Amino acid sequence: MTSALASSVIEPSETPATAVLLPSRGAAILARLAEVGRFGAVGTIAFFVDLGVYNLLRFGPGGSPHVSALWAKVIAVVLATAVSWLGSRHWTFADRRTDQPAREAFSFLVVNGLGMAISLLCLVVTTDVLGLTSPLAENVAANVVGLALANVFRYFAYRHLVFAAPR
After folding, report:
1. Alpha helices, DSSP H only, in 19-130?
2. Of 52, 64, 70, 99, which is most buried, counting CB atoms within 10 Å of its CB?
3. What is the Cα–Cα distance from 147 to 115, expressed in whole angstroms?
4. Is 140:74 a contact under the CB 8 Å cutoff?
5. Exposed / middle / buried, residue 32 (Cβ in 10 Å: 0-12, 13-18, 19+)
6. Which of 93, 84, 17, 22 is nearest to 48 (CA)?
7. Nearest one of 62, 56, 105, 61 to 76, comparing CA atoms
8. For residue 119, how far is the Cα from the chain centroid?
C-alpha cells in the first residue's frame, strides 16, 4: 500500500469498540429503493386480492352473482387490507415495526382510510368540479392519479407513523 492510502485505512484492531458503522449514501439509497420495491409488491398483491375476491364473489363459478356488489367489495377490501397489513408489518417494514401491534393496526387502518379519501377527492374534483364523467376520466382520476397520490401518502405515513420503531 502507498503511504497516503495506508494512513487513511483503519486496521480492524485500531477500530474503537464503540464505533458505529454508517451506511454509505449509495447503500442507504439502495436500501430505500428495496423498501419501496417491497411496498409496491405488497400493494400489487393486495390489489389483486381485492380484484380477485370481488370478481369471484360477484361472477364466480356458475356465472351468476353470489353476493351483492357492495358486500363483495367490502369483503374484498377487508381481505386485501389484511394482506397489506401482514405484508407491510412482516416484510416491507419488518425492521421498523414496534412491539405494539394493536397501535400499529389502528394507525394502519386510519392511514388507509385517509388514502381512500385522497382517491375519492380526486374523483370528486374530476366529476363534480371539472364535470368530467366519462369512464376514462373517472378511472384516470380514481385509479391512476388518486391511487398514485394515495400510495405516496401511504408509504410515508406507514414509514414514519405506523411502523415507527426507534432505530
Report:
1. 25-59, 69-87, 101-124
2. 52
3. 8
4. no
5. exposed
6. 84
7. 56
8. 15
Residue 47 in grid coordinates: 390489489
Closest by CA to 145, choosing from 158, 130, 159, is: 130
Q: List the chain pLDDT tens, one digit each, 167 residues.
A: 444 444 444 455 555 554 455 568 888 899 999 999 999 999 999 999 988 888 888 888 766 667 777 788 889 889 999 999 999 999 999 998 888 999 999 999 999 999 989 988 998 999 999 999 888 988 888 888 988 999 999 999 999 999 987 76
C-alpha grid cell, residue 121 = 377527492
Q: Containing H/E element for 152?
A: helix 146-157
Cell 385509479 locates to: 143
All three cell numbers of 89, joined, read: 408489518
Identity of the residue numbered 126 = T
Task: Please tell me the distance from the alpha carbon of residue 22 to that of residue 103, in angstroms, as a whole number.
Answer: 30
Q: Give me the count of residues in the chain.
A: 167
Sign of CA dihedral 152, 82, 43, 160: positive
Q: Which amino acid is at 159?
A: R
